Structure formats: structure tokens, C-alpha cells
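Notes from hallway chat w/ T.B., transcribed later so I don't forget. T.B. wanted the structure written out for a chain they're using in a teaching module, and asked if we could keep both sequence and C-alpha cells in one place. Agreed to drop them here.
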Amino acid sequence: GGQPRNVQPFSDEDASIETMSHCSGFSDPASFTEDGPEVDEEATQEDLEYKLKGFIDLTLDKSAKTRQAALESLKSAFSSKILYEFIMERRMTLTDSIERCIKKGKSDEQCAAAGLACLLCVQMGSGIESEEIFKTLGPVLKKIVCDGTASVQARQACATCLGICCFIVTDDITELYSTMECLENIFMKAYQRDRDTNGVSSTHNTVLHVSALLAWTLLLTICPMNEVKKKIEMHLHKLPSLLSCDDLNMRIAAGETLALLFELARETDADFFYEDMDLLTEKLRALATDGNKHRAKVDKRKQRSVFRDVLRAVEERDFPTEMVKFGPERMYIDCWVKKQTYEMFKEILGSGMQYHLQSNDFLRNVFELGPPVMLDAATLKTMKISRFERHLYNSAAFKARTKARSKCRDKRADVGEFF
């Protein structure tokens, strides 16, 4: 049937059309960072807050399509801006809207609401406000994750949300263990995959198992050492079975989790010994050099890259350090714990990850970056490269690469002719 006319937050007849056009224009995070003439920041902030208030009102709309568009627009704003004060005044309203959308919405709406819940906690940080949000949403998220009748996509989004929100709150150790147990009950079903008579159902739920495993791994990184030892004993002998899974993402998730478990085990015990090391390294080496023709080239390339690093971690206790640039700063990812944490938050924040690493106190605390670096407007202006200058630089780099490759090709041709 036809969708009901939206009457919030404006009273005129075209309110919904105007607001929805804002939704579509606002949903692109790039709109926050486009180069352009200088504008009045205070007026821009007021305009932004006015739009956000409209989106919050539209999360209560009768139309599911309108509610979902409003949730997506709020997600784009929360991932691209620090809006602590604005959210602080409306956190209860936002929490109620998210709870209602998760409880009563369909799959896509539930996914959008779960994503917004993550961003809400990321914005609020690890304070009492986030605790209140998690007390309200935690039971709802767990219920969806464990509900076999809910869509796999909604359960997957709720599992990720559950892990990230619990990671941010973390004050109550019993809640941490309870959340981990909930996620464990989901991904442990993948251990029996080969013995599952219903192969279609098992494959269908793989995406859920992957999300639950990654969320559980994130929470493991903040557990006390005695609990870490228990979890290693429980899972280290079972996880290698997932390396034979048909799904690439499950193989990669299992491999990276194994690398992290070995890293944590060796931190607790420098002389840690794993009985089936030869069998495990053989499996990892096979995946790191996999050449099966029935797999896509892109998948094989990705798998080989990941498992080369996993093999080095398990065999040689080595980690290939990565560097992340954001603004004038640099962050070095030098261990599996840091890598897994970074990847989880990057999945939620998307293109806004760099901005939050610069400005979000909570994330900076997680990655031990210290307080935000304060730069005045003049300094930022001198650091910023104009779009035209970027174009010139890219053109020059492209020409240089072309010349270098041409020389290499000429050398190869000469060698071929010589032989």
C-alpha cells in the first residue's frame, strides 16, 4: 500500500519530501569534507543540528522506509562528526528510538538501528551515559542474536553491536562474561558444521558465526588474564577446524583469531607449548600458498596475504607492523590485539575512522594516542592541499609510474631477445 504522509518535524505538506531529500543528501559522509569556500561554522552547526532533530523525529514515523532513511542519515552524521553535546541532550530519546526499531522493525531497519547504537556508544565514550544505553539495549540485542526466527543479517548486526558496545562499557565484569557467553553460543555451532545434517542452514548462518567470533575476540582482548587462559584452553584446539570452512571470511576470521590467541597465550606464558603445532602450521602453510583453481583469484590473493601473516605469528612470533595516517599524526599497529580492535571500529565508522582517531577521546584512549592534537585554523589551512594541487600531484605520480614501468618492460624485452 501507499506510504503514510510524514508530518514530523514540520507541519506543512511538503515536510516529509523536504526532510527525505535532506536524508539522501546527508547520507554521504564525503559531504562533510568537500573542499569549498569558507562558511560560517556556527550557522553550519545550527543547520546540521536542525536536520538531525528532524531525523530523530522521523525515527518514530509510521513508514518503515522513512524510519530506515532517518537511521541511515543519523549514522552518517555520527560517523563523520563529533556530536557529544548534541547527543548528550537527546541520548534517552535516541536510545528509545533505537530500541523500538530493533524490536519492531524488519531486517534492514534492525541492521540500521544496531549500527546507530554502536555509533551512539562510540560518541558517548566509556562513561555512565554509555552504561545506561547498554543497560537498555543490551538485553534487546541479545534477544535478537539468539532468536533463530530473526533474519541472519539482523542477528549479525546485533552481534557486532553487542561486542562493540560491551567493549566500550566494560565496567561490569559479569556483564562482560555474560555477553561473551552469548556470542560463544553462536559461533561454537560452526565447530559442528561438518556434522550438521542441514548443510544449507549451516552455510546460511556462516556470516552470523563470523560476526559473533570477531565480536567475541574483541571482548577477549579486555578480559583478565585468568579468564583469557580459560578461553584459550577451551577454543585453541577447536578453532583449527574452521580453517577448512568453505567460506573465505570464516577461514580468515578463524586464522586471525588463532594468531591473537597465540599472542595472548605467549604473553601469559613465555614458554607456551601447543601440542598440535606441526599439524596447525601445515594447515596454515597450505592456506598461505593455496592455488586451487575453483577459487576466485581475488579470494586466493586475500587469503594468501592474511595467512602468510598468521603463519609468521604462530611459527615465528612475528607481526608485520602497519602504519595508519590521520591528519598530521601516525599510528603504528604492531600486534594482533591492536589490529583486531582497529578493524572492528573501522567496520563501524567506515570513512569516518580517521576523523574519530583525530578527535574522539575514547578511541584515542583505546589506542593510547593521548589527548587530541589541537591545531589552529591557520595551521590547518597551510596543511590542506587544494583539489587542483592534488590533481597535479596525482598526474605527476601517474606519469612517473608509467615511465618506470616502461623501462622495466624494455629491460625484460631485451633479456628475452638476448636469450
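Follow-up for T.B.: Strands lie at 322-326, 329-333. Might be a good example for the class.
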